């Protein structure tokens, strides 16, 4: 806008304009301009009267040519007149331009956001004789600004208020709860195994799921509450004016909301969520500590099993410290020589011999003692440490295989577990190949175990598996039967072995369903020409069952627990 800063016009300057030029200037500058322009004369009594209106200005507030010479109060509704009178008076007082924004109804009845600038015009004595008012439609700018504000406080994917919004709203909610002496609950909600879902189904499906989850979370109950997307697969709910019992009910409703499957591209998926709850004022007196403590409770909920809710308590603090201790320790575990590989023999049921072993990682923490892989592998996955740990395992096993060959122990094969993250690592195949070459191994003596979850992206899985097969290593599907994979899909992949998950083996003698599942898997493997191993075989009758069913190998405590290398060499390699 062409701001007219303290323009001083002298009387004789007006007269110097010839009428024609004046008309042209008016035509060009004032009439065609889209701004609303008014020139007001400052009356001796302190009022303001119209001396000029451009075309745009005429339509506004029923102003017409007849309004010329009349005061604000003679022309405008009282409220508008008072409002403008105040602004004009402020120009008189400050002796400088004043700007303000308000809602303006235009000639064509459109209601817009207007920004007005009132500029004083001084005479020779320095008195203000006229005030020029220019009003511009800034609706587009306001809309942009509103949009920007909206975007700053909302998550574009789910449309839910975001983390910045949470900070603001939570502080307000805490303040209100404090003033009204009420309890407030903060729930930290995290989807179970979302990472797995995202890795296996792809990010587009992941996004759809998050959106659907957002919708489900906002339609839990009638009670007023607010849902935020904290980031990733984390959501936060603020439940004002509540109690421990009421928030517990709410958490149960959240869990229940996940009982129905999510439909994505005509497929149904079951996803559950875990919830950590902190209550104001018991578990924290400000927003940050409520979030932190709900997060701690969430961790605990996840540890205890999924699809659970858990309230914060002081004891939880200690347990979280334990997890952090593990993470810090794990970072140094390789260089401090705390990792060791145990080997579990696999018994070949047709020969009653052991020629293959599964390599299973063991961690001896200097303070915590033995830490189970079930506990630290997920941490290694989450932190990415699994890549260096995984590489260490492959290196170590390959060196051992070379050593055993040199000692003349006969043919031995070892299977190594690959985590989903490792499997996605682009350098994986090259790294494996280098290790095989360096140790001059027969590639077939290495088998890699993958869970179904690691192989859900069909194109990528096929590519990587094909490359692995090119090198000549074997591939097995670990924990078979627990993932999402369809049988037809398995058929298309270059797989050598299926490992029946322990959960089916455990009750195979008591539970007909488990017996049916295991038998089906064995038949499937046979018809596809795959070898099949039953995991977690603990009693002799199970061995008999699998022998009769035609299963190739069994692995489990009945025969042997995973054992250290020297023991394995002593028992199984030396005497061959
Ligand atoms: P998994 O690959 O399914 O390994 C089999 C697990 O079952 C091992 O647990 C083994 O000790 C246990 N097991 C064997 N026989 C029996 C039995 O008769 N009864 C019962 N109840 N359990 C039996 P472990 O060694 O604690 O490993 C647990 C999981 O940790 C493994 O499951 C695997 O997913 C992961 N893991 C272990 N080592 C590695 C590794 O080097 N890399 C990766 N990525 N994951 C590993
Ligand atoms: Mg395994
Ligand atoms: Mg397994």
UniProtKB/TrEMBL annotation:
Q: Which Pfam families match?
A: EAL, GGDEF, PAS_4
InterPro entries linked: Biofilm_reg_signaling, EAL_dom, EAL_sf, GGDEF_dom, Nucleotide_cyclase, PAS-like_dom_sf, PAS_4, Rev_trsase/Diguanyl_cyclase
Question: Which region is the signal sequence?
Answer: none
Q: Where is the GGDEF domain?
A: 182-314
**Domain EAL, chain residue ranges per copy:** 323-576
Task: Specify the domain of life of the species encoding this protein.
Answer: Bacteria
Alphabetized CDD domains for the sequence: EAL, GGDEF
What is this protein identified as? GGDEF and EAL domain-containing protein
């Amino acid at each position: 806008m062409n701001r007219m800063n303290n323009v001083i016009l002298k009387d004789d300057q007006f007269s110097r304009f010839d009428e024609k030029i004046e008309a042209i200037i008016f035509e060009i500058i004032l009439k065609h301009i889209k701004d609303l322009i008014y020139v007001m004369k400052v009356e001796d009594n302190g009022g303001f009267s119209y001396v000029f209106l451009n075309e745009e200005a005429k339509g506004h507030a029923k102003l017409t040519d007849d309004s010329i010479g009349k005061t604000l109060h003679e022309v405008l509704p009282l409220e508008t007149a008072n409002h403008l009178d105040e602004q004009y008076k402020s120009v008189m007082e400050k002796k400088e331009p004043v700007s303000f924004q308000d809602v303006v109804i235009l000639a064509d009845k459109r209601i817009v956001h207007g920004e007005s600038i009132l500029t004083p015009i001084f005479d020779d004595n320095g008195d203000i004789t006229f005030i020029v008012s220019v009003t511009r439609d800034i609706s587009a700018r306001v809309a942009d600004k509103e949009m920007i504000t909206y975007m700053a406080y909302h998550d574009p994917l789910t449309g839910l208020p975001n983390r910045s919004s949470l900070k603001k709203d939570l502080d307000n909610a805490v303040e209100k709860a404090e003033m009204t002496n009420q309890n407030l609950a903060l729930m930290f909600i995290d989807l179970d195994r979302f990472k797995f879902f995202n890795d296996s189904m792809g990010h587009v499906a992941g996004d759809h799921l998050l959106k659907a989850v957002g919708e489900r979370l906002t339609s839990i109950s009638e009670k007023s509450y607010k849902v935020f997307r904290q980031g990733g697969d984390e959501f936060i709910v603020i439940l004002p004016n509540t109690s421990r019992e009421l928030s517990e009910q709410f958490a149960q409703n959240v869990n229940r909301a996940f009982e129905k499957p999510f439909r994505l591209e005509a497929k149904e998926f079951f996803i559950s969520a875990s919830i950590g709850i902190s209550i104001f004022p018991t578990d924290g007196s400000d927003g940050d500590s409520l979030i932190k403590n709900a997060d701690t409770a969430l961790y605990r909920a996840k540890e205890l099993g999924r699809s659970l809710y858990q309230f914060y308590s002081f004891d939880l603090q200690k347990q979280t410290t334990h997890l952090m201790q593990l993470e810090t320790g794990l970072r140094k575990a390789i260089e401090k020589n705390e990792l060791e590989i145990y080997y579990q023999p696999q018994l070949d049921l047709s020969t009653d011999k052991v020629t293959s072993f599964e390599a299973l990682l063991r961690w001896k923490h200097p303070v915590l003692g033995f830490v189970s892989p079930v506990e630290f592998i997920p941490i290694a996955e989450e932190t990415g440490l699994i890549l260096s740990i995984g590489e260490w395992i492959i290196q170590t096993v390959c060196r051992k295989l070379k050593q055993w060959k040199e000692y003349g122990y006969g043919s031995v094969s070892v299977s190594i577990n690959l985590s989903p993250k490792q499997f996605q690592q682009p350098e994986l195949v090259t790294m494996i190949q280098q290790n095989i070459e360096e140790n001059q191994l027969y590639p077939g003596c290495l088998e890699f175990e993958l869970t179904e979850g690691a192989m859900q992206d069909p194109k990528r899985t096929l590519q990587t598996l094909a490359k692995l097969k090119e090198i000549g290593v074997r591939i097995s599907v670990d924990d078979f039967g627990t993932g999402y994979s369809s049988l037809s899909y398995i058929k298309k992949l270059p797989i050598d072995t299926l490992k029946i998950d322990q959960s089916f083996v455990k009750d195979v003698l008591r539970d007909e369903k488990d017996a049916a599942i295991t038998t089906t898997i064995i038949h499937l493997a046979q018809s596809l020409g795959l070898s099949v191993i039953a995991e977690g075989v603990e009693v002799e009758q199970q061995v008999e069952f699998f022998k009769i069913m035609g299963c190739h190998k069994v692995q489990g405590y009945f025969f042997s627990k995973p054992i250290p290398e020297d023991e394995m060499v002593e028992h199984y390699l030396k005497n061959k």
